[in-house]
């Protein structure tokens, strides 16, 4: 397995860029897909955002300065692209971001790619009631088991703020599940 520093060097070289990018896709495509999917909910939207994310990574890899891990940088791009899509959909439908999320949750029952049961659907509905940042933090911690240190790089905030957001999110989800 190639290490991140070597991979980055190859990504920035004209000679090895294509091969290195294929390696990058192989290593991160599935993780990024599920991260994006946890935000946008729909398989089709997640596929579109994933494609946009990798296009941005490819075009901007030479601007990556190495201040964070490559993984964190790519997750930040994926997160921003996901939020951009939600904002675009909200504007197009002339509704709030929260309403876009609710529509996406309601569409999960007819999404052939959603393999969840009634309990998972209820959990997704609970998550959708959270503010966007709490949704991100909850999904990244609960489903992806991302460390607070890495999450702090991805979301560009402090570990303390993330821990507080996660605990507040858990409490709100527990309350939702108890009441519904």
TrEMBL record:
It holds the Pfam family Sigma70_r4_2. GO terms for molecular function: DNA binding; sigma factor activity. Residues 26-91 form the RNA polymerase sigma-70 region domain. The keyword Transcription regulation applies. Residues 121-173 form the RNA polymerase sigma factor 70 region 4 type domain. The keyword Transcription applies. It comes from the Bacteria. Keywords: Sigma factor, Transcription, Transcription regulation. InterPro entries: RNA_pol_sigma-70-like (IPR039425), RNA_pol_sigma-70_dom (IPR014284), RNA_pol_sigma70_r2 (IPR007627), RNA_pol_sigma70_r4_t2 (IPR013249), RNA_pol_sigma_r2 (IPR013325), RNA_pol_sigma_r3/r4-like (IPR013324), WH-like_DNA-bd_sf (IPR036388). GO terms for biological process: DNA-templated transcription initiation. Belongs to the sigma-70 factor family. ECF subfamily. This is Sigma-70 family RNA polymerase sigma factor. The lineage of its organism: Bacteria, Pseudomonadati, Bacteroidota, Flavobacteriia, Flavobacteriales.
């Amino acid at each position: 397995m190639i290490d991140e520093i070597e991979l980055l060097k190859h990504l920035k070289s004209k000679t090895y860029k294509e091969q290195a990018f294929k390696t990058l896709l192989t290593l991160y495509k599935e993780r990024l897909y599920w991260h994006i999917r946890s935000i946008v909910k729909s398989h089709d939207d997640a596929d579109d955002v994933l494609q946009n994310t990798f296009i941005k990574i490819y075009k901007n890899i030479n601007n990556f300065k190495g201040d964070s891990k490559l993984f964190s940088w790519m997750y930040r791009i994926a997160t921003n692209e996901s939020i951009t899509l939600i904002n675009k959909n909200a504007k197009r439908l002339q509704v709030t971001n929260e309403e876009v999320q609710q529509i996406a949750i309601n569409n999960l029952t007819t999404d052939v790619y959603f393999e969840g049961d009634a309990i998972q659907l209820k959990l997704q509905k609970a998550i959708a009631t959270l503010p966007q940042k709490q949704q991100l933090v909850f999904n990244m911690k609960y489903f992806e088991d991302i460390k607070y240190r890495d999450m702090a790089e991805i979301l560009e905030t402090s570990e303390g703020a993330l821990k507080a957001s996660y605990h507040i999110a858990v409490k709100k989800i527990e309350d939702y599940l108890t009441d519904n």
